[in-house]
Amino acid sequence: MALPSFTDDFPGWYQEVVRQADLAENSLVRGTMVIKPAGYAMWEAIRDALDVRFKETGHQNLYFPMFIPLRLLEREKEHVEGFAPEFAMVTHAGGEELAEPLVVRPTSETIIWDTYAKWVQSYRDLPLLYNQWANVVRWELRPRLFLRTTEFLWQEGHTAHETEEEAWEEARRMLEAYRQVAEDVMAMPVFLGRKTPAERFPGAVETFTIEALMRDRKALQAGTSHYLGQNFAKAYGVQYLGRDGEQHFAEATSWGASTRLVGGLIMAHGDEKGLRLPPRVAPIQVVVVPIFRNDEERARVLGETQRLAETWRAAGLRVKADDRDDLRPGYKFADWELRGVPVRVEIGPRDLDASQVTIVRRDTGAKSEVGLDAVAATLTGLQDEIQRALFDDALAFRDAHTTRVRSYDELRDAIEDPGGFVIGGWCGDAVCEAKVKAETKATIRFLPFEPEPADGPCVVCAQAAVDTAAWAIAY
Amino acid sequence: MALPSFTDDFPGWYQEVVRQADLAENSLVRGTMVIKPAGYAMWEAIRDALDVRFKETGHQNLYFPMFIPLRLLEREKEHVEGFAPEFAMVTHAGGEELAEPLVVRPTSETIIWDTYAKWVQSYRDLPLLYNQWANVVRWELRPRLFLRTTEFLWQEGHTAHETEEEAWEEARRMLEAYRQVAEDVMAMPVFLGRKTPAERFPGAVETFTIEALMRDRKALQAGTSHYLGQNFAKAYGVQYLGRDGEQHFAEATSWGASTRLVGGLIMAHGDEKGLRLPPRVAPIQVVVVPIFRNDEERARVLGETQRLAETWRAAGLRVKADDRDDLRPGYKFADWELRGVPVRVEIGPRDLDASQVTIVRRDTGAKSEVGLDAVAATLTGLQDEIQRALFDDALAFRDAHTTRVRSYDELRDAIEDPGGFVIGGWCGDAVCEAKVKAETKATIRFLPFEPEPADGPCVVCAQAAVDTAAWAIAY
Prior knowledge:
Two copies of one chain form a homodimer.
Chain A: H1 10-20, E1 24-26, E2 33-35, H2 37-56, E3 60-61, E4 67-69, H3 70-73, H4 77-83, E5 88-93, E6 96-104, H5 109-119, E7 128-137, E8 151-161, H6 164-185, E9 190-194, E10 206-213, E11 219-229, H7 231-236, E12 239-241, E13 247-249, E14 251-258, H8 260-269, E15 286-290, H9 295-314, E16 319-321, H10 329-338, E17 343-347, H11 349-353, E18 356-361, E19 367-371, H12 375-400, E20 402-404, H13 408-416, E21 421-426, H14 430-440, E22 443-446, E23 467-472
Helix pairs in contact in A: 2-6
């Protein structure tokens, strides 16, 4: 079935791509979703890429319970206020009413830092470099598949350190891990920066973010890393005997990325025909479509298709041979284009007569005929090429939708057209930030890591700028 | 700290090993646990071994929400009756009382089959071969770390098929996958068989099981696979247009294995000194302990330790160099023995003078000196050898604790001594089954796949035996 227009009805396009490509669907409970095999395979690729980087940087996985006693959450005031409206609460269990309600974790700082109090006695116990893969629940009023769901899958890293410096470094190191996965694996260019106080994680001293641009020119926060200072150590009593013989509160970070990234993948690369998947996260990298008109051709082509697919698999490619009998080649072409498979190989009797196949790139539509001897090498080379081309294409799109402005009029115009990121001076006042949000819906997505007084005044109030802000309308 | 006696106080030994080896600990909410990094790494190894076998047999992963509306669960009567006493229920969310309580999944047949009704229209949509990795909640009155916890991690496979035969084959195929992981990866021999009606999964037509023997002579159900017939298809309306042009209900299986397997690993192989980990699941396969008496020796030995550890890592081994300065070698030896690392390498100045190291096996305590040139090959060979030796040792233990009996007196005696599995004729009557349970605490752990009238009468009532039952006291 035809997709809604990618340019005129992006939300409709997104919804239909997710449905027709079998990525996910709404489930019975408001805001919850079933992640279908094709969508889950994309998440597995992202998850594995993150997990290997966490382990390379010295982190270990563990697992904390998802039920958190309400009183425990209430100990860090700013944190609980940020999340309380989204709590889901268990009040009955084992056939009885519980003495105290349990909150299904919206994030795990509270239960983890309460436990760290037992694990940390001395500087010798530090750092703690732990991560968990888990489901979390935040009750959503305006859910959207992958992007905002009541239950979602994520990882949350929670580290404890001796010094402020070490914790800052950790928060930045994990932001870099997110950047690598976004850019090098998902082929999705991201800006890195700092959040404003209004956009910070509840309970954080500083929140770092990676921000990507979607094809509807809206920004997507794709991963955040927080320097939490001693806020949680103080709330949960995590003190250690320092090298100086004194008691100190531990320094904290936390960092998370979620199934929302699957939504980012769809919206960063899609086109009128559907998904375009970067080869490194594509569950199927090469689809082979056999072409025949009668039973004799069928036998010959199917046999060769299976044999060739096997040799390409042996070359390390994830290959699917589409031998469905009840569908025409044209339907299959459109179907695999919708599903974003990076390369299609067509094999017909005339191809076999000429000892060749036809290869079609999903990203550009470019078609070429390749001799059988060279196909494995061509397919392998194409994976790298398409990976790079999708990144370059997304980067060019972002460049075309990043504007520097010097006045409020310019800011408003740029948010309208070309959209995307609009960069200009900011006085640092939350009032100016709120005004832009109220009048244009754009929020400050990030600030540079260190304040950079802009070349020009605050674009909102025209007072002196103390920083350079990047505004965008965001998911 | 010394462990409680492995032979006289096995429960105390288990609890202390879990604590001292940093595998897990109780969390705030009754029955919930924190899985610590060392325990989680064991779970990751088991999980990966299962996941690869699921994928090899054509299954894909997906993810269903954990919240299930109560009314949905109530549609399969036998199923809901089995699980209702253990439900945890969410009654409030987003600051409001919900119109309908949500059950936190104890298992997902209901929500999955309700969704399959949308996915299955024709025989062309079958089979569905899906699995999910998830957390589940069953309120536990007598929790025990890893073995019975209120929240646990597991996988649950849920498949839909055209024919009864295909579904039976699937249920048996996945039992075989569990057997492979238990025996070939965890080095834990298991018996395979069928459950009695009293021990079946609520809603199943037939439950298959793998049953292992722990070192206290108690049995552990280590994985189950269920043939569910059309029970769930009928309750949730999953019908398909068959090849014959008629509507049919789909045939179902489900199968699950959980973090309980980590408990099995501990109890199947442990000894007085602590864990003994099979190399294939050991997060650390080789620990290197440097030995020195002064700063000069220290510099030399530590340098060589790091260099050698790196070469052994390059040979594909998971190697940890224990360079902690504040601990004596003897303490380190005991610590790594407790944690079950399969092989210890000791490196001292005299070893280096002789171009050799000392290698100590955790399973046997055997000590040998090996020239530097041969260490990598020796360590690699030892992994296979220890893997096999642990399996053989567990098998010999099980053989010594499996008894065939012909009368009730023999049954009672054998359950007492030697304990373990006691095998004898059974008339098939639940009354006899209940009597043994009430009088000896032993339950029927499994029956052969096909009924085997035993050589002798029912050991309980002396009537004709229609089957051969294996009794044991179980976790």
